[in-house]
Amino acid sequence: MCLAGCERAVREAVTRRGFVKAAAAAGFAATGVAGGTALAAPKSFTNVVDLTHTMSPEFPTFNGKPGIEMQREFAIRRDGYNLFWWRLSEHAGTHLDAPIHFSERGATADKLAIDQLVVPLAVVDIAYKAEQDADYLLSGDDLALWESRNGRLPEGCCVALYSGWGELLVTDEARYSGRDIDGTFHFPGFAPEAAEWMMRERKVAGIAVDTLSLDNGPSRDFKTHKLWLASGRWGLENVANLGKVPANGATLVVGAPKVKDATGGLTRVLALV
Questions:
Q1: pLDDT of res. 74
Q2: Where are the domains of the chain?
């Protein structure tokens, strides 16, 4: 998790003149997902986009319970400093799904290689289709269309689904989860077939969604979760501001929690544009 001042620190450590030099100094070996395939050197950047929603007890969750509870333990007037105890769910707010979340022997969040957390970002815009069908599944055709416009998906990249759902947290929170009177959720996600294609035909490190889940809302078998995470890859859920980054050319920085044995956790996610 990125502490206060994370964006400023990234800017200082990774200058417009020398991302590669700074990354090397920090120990970021730019290798791919499988087989150690070298990635293209990240480009310089002029802007940092925060892809993280502010976490609070009101943030929507699957079970309707608060994803975080904060209890004040110390107060500055009484104790000389402020401190809260947190009680939180690993899988609420903008967060990481580690491979072990849906596999028996997958990597925990603390074991993810750092070079798989600073990667090229590919944003697939399905907002129009999602507007027509809240349960839309990003398909292989959507990926083929992205490649026809932007070129082959970069090796070791993160493929992000942009449905426009992130904006609903401000304008229509009830629609964000889309829970109907029967308790079924309605929001877009990745089709399992698209996940299989990215695993088989491309070297993609992670996938991200601006919704509650990698699978779409009505899913009961969570097949995309099971396929993707069990393959040793990671996912990001409840990502913000994907509409503010280009379809390609940005670099994603995933501030994954380094907590022993964690299956995921709150994550600060940044895009260098």
A1: 98
A2: 6-272
Residue 6's pLDDT is what?
A: 47
Q: How far apart are the first and last CA of the chain?
A: 21
Classify domain 6-272 by CATH number.
3.50.30.50
- Run means of pLDDT, 10 residues per run, the chain, 273 residues: 45 43 37 40 82 97 95 97 97 98 95 96 98 98 98 98 95 93 97 98 98 98 98 98 98 97 98 98
Predicted TM-score (pTM) of this structure: 0.85
Q: How far is 240 from 2, CA to CA, in rounded Å?
A: 16
Do β-strands 48-50 and 268-272 pair in parallel, antiparallel, or remain unpaired? antiparallel
Neighbours of 166 (CB within 10 A): 22
> What does the H/E/C string look like for the chain?
CCCCCHHHHHHHHCCCCCHHHHHHHCCCCCECCCCCCECCCCCCCCCEEECECCCCCCCCCCCCCCCEEEEEEECHHHHCCCEEEEEECCCCCCEEECHHHHCCCCCCHHHCCHHHCEEEEEEEECHHHHHHCCCCEECHHHHHHHHHHHCCCCCCEEEEEECCHHHHHHHCHHHHHCCCCCCCCCCCEECHHHHHHHHHHCCEEEEEECCCCCCCCCCCCCHHHHHHHHCCCEEEECECCHHHCCCCCEEEEEECCCCCCCCEEECEEEEEC
Distance CA 238, CA 92 (A): 8
